[in-house]
Amino acid sequence: MAKKKGFMTPERKKKLRTLLRKKAAEELKKEQERKAEERLRVIAERCGTKADLDNASTDELKKICQQYFDKWYGLEGEMFFLQREVILRDLQINELTISVSDMKGKFIKPTLKKVSKY
Fold first, then answer.
1. b/e per residue 4-19 (b: at least 16 CB within 10 A)
2. pLDDT digits 0-9 by tens, 29-83
């Protein structure tokens, strides 16, 4: 009886590996392009389009500056309220953990430091 050759010869394995590498490289490139487009879209959504400052008159520049200031002012106010909310939530979490430890009756004993007698 003649021995049957294996299905995956070294040449086939090598060709399959190269095809898989090419496919993975293409997918990686597509993913990077998609992420870059998403990043640009998010930046445009958050910041708006870039204003043409070179060809603008003084009145237009004042309007543009006022728009940027209004946007900045609104974002600063929103940031203040978000920071305040985070601080309040941290305090609530701390109070709840204290109340839970009180209910269990287990307290964390602080580590005592060795002090010399003299």
1. eeeeeeeeeeeeeeee
2. 999 999 999 999 988 888 777 777 788 888 988 998 898 899 899 999 999 999 9
DSSP output for 47-98? H-PPP--TT--HHHHHHHHHHHHHHHHHHHHHHHHHHHHHHHHHHHHHHHHH
Query: For residue range 89-112, what is the model confidence (pLDDT) as tens digits?
Result: 999 999 998 888 777 776 667 778
Cα(95)–Cα(101) distance, rounded to whole angstroms?
A: 10
Q: Give the separation between CA 6 and CA 14, rounded to whole angstroms.
A: 15
Rounded to two decimals, the pTM is 0.45
The residue written with tokens 């237009």 in the block is 60
Chain CA centroid to CA 15, Å = 38
Helix (H) or strand (E) holding 37: helix 10-47
